[in-house]
Each structure stands twice: as C-alpha cells, then as structure tokens.
Amino acid sequence: MTEGFHGRTVLIPGGGRGIGYAAGVMMANQGAKVALADVVGDRATEAAARLKDETGAETLGIACDIANPDDVHRMISSAQSALGDIDIMVNTAAIVADKTFMESTPEDWKQILDICLYGSMNVIHAVLPGMVERNYGRIVCLASDAARTGQARHSYYAAAKGGVISLVKSVAQEVGRNGVTLNVVSPGATDTELRKGREKEVLEAIGEERFAKREQTILRMYPTRRLGQPDDIAAGIVYLCGDGASWVTGQVLSINGGFAMV
Ligand SMILES: NC(=O)c1ccc[n+]([C@@H]2O[C@H](COP(=O)([O-])OP(=O)(O)OC[C@H]3O[C@@H](n4cnc5c(N)ncnc54)[C@H](O)[C@@H]3O)[C@@H](O)[C@H]2O)c1
After folding, report:
1. Pairing label, strands 33-38, 59-63
2. What is the reported pTM?
C-alpha cells in the first residue's frame, strides 16, 4: 500500500456505490479519510461502514441530495467536523435519462438539470471557499461521453453534462492561482448499477433477442470490446486527485475503451 493520500480528506457525493465508491476505495487504500454522501442515506452509511472494514480508513456516510443547497452545506459541515477540512471532492452523483427529446417534458429536463448541473454547481460552490483559503484543493466532476459526442435518447442528460464541462473549465481558470485544480472525468458505458438499471428497462421493452443483438452492436463501438468497470474510471479520478496532477487543470479525461477519440 502506498500512502499518496495520507492525511487528506476526501468527500464523494454519489459515493454510495458505483464509480464514486470505487474511487473511495482506491484513495482510502492510499491513506485518505473518506466521506461518502448519497441521496439514499442508508446506502451512504452502509458503504462507509464497508469501506472502513475493507481498508481500515476513517470513513463517514452522509445523507445528502446535491440538488438542495442547504443539504449540501450540511454535508460539508458534517464531513469537516468528523474528518477535517476537505482537500479533495469527487462529484459522482447523477441520474440518467432515456427518452427522445420529443418524448421528454420540461419536468424531465428540470429533474436532470437540478441534479447533474445545479448539483455540480452546489457542491463546487460550497467546497471551494475553504479550498481557496487553504490554498489547496482537488475537484473532479463526472461528465459523460454523451456530452462530448451527443447521444440519442440522452439529449438533456448530455446537455447537463456539457454544462458541467464548461463550469469546471471556467472555475479552473478562476482558482488555479489558489492551488485548486478542477477536472472532469468522462466515462463511456461502465458496468454499474446505474447502467444495469437502465439496461433492465431496455430488456423489458424490446425482448431478449433484440436485446442480445443490441449488446453486440454496443460492444462493437468499443475498440477494446468490453464495457468499463468502476475501477477503470476510478484510476483516472485518483490520478487527477493526486499530487502528481498538480499541473493538470480544466481538462476532460475520457475513459471509454476508445469509444470516442475526441
Ligand atoms: N455508468 C456509466 O455507464 C456512466 C457513463 C457515463 C457517465 N457516468 C457518470 O458517472 C457518475 C457515476 O455513475 P455510476 O455509474 O457510478 O452511478 P450509480 O448510480 O452507480 O452511482 C451514483 C450514486 O449517486 C447517487 N445520487 C443520485 N442522485 C443523487 C443526488 N441528487 N444527490 C446525491 N446522490 C445522488 C445515487 O443514489 C447513486 O448511489 C455519474 O455522474 C454518471 O452520470 C456513468
């Protein structure tokens, strides 16, 4: 075990499972204290207990809806009181949409934008002043290659994630001089509960035969011929959060098995 994150406090909104949890494991294994926050409060608490068991790290589980600014401020206070000032924040909280734009309604757009775009604004806005004051911070937000290439049935999710990319680049320009870096990790299709849930709905809608063909078609879009695993994405997140990436800011790192080369 290396100690690259020894003494660092990491906050991961959306870390109750999936990519965020995997990033938490990797940083805890390198000495970090890790707060996992999730809108599903029990999921956050159970994940934090599991992370402590697996790694021996100090951990905390926090219930928080990142779409709610008051909740976000409570999350930051709880993490700081229990684990110390936040050095690193990785925002992985999101939900996904699966409708054509014509089928969608303004309510659908609002739900996605509230969590994916305003949620990212809320967590960055709340954590940034402390980082600037202490002259150190690492922020990584998760976008999606849907934002970089466009994706049918994901228009407003892609629009929200495109907003996250623009937000991160702009704020990175404002706070680079204060020792704070902000970057984006942009995954391709990754085998998490988020994707599994969506695929289950597709299977029910189109039946087994068409679903199997569809899976083959999807895999052919990936030169590496496999889906991503949470650890594939977490490895890039951990790089951007480490001291070795102190001269990397405002960047978008696609981790996607070669799906899009933009
Ligand atoms: N899995 C993929 O194929 C994929 C592809 C591209 C981008 N991404 C992005 O990667 C990130 C992580 O995805 P994942 O696959 O690990 O998802 P996941 O669903 O497995 O985990 C995300 C967690 O965020 C939580 N969450 C949702 N809304 C929240 C809110 N308002 N406040 C706090 N927590 C909330 C969920 O409860 C869940 O536990 C997301 O930003 C997602 O958009 C994932």
Report:
1. parallel
2. 0.98
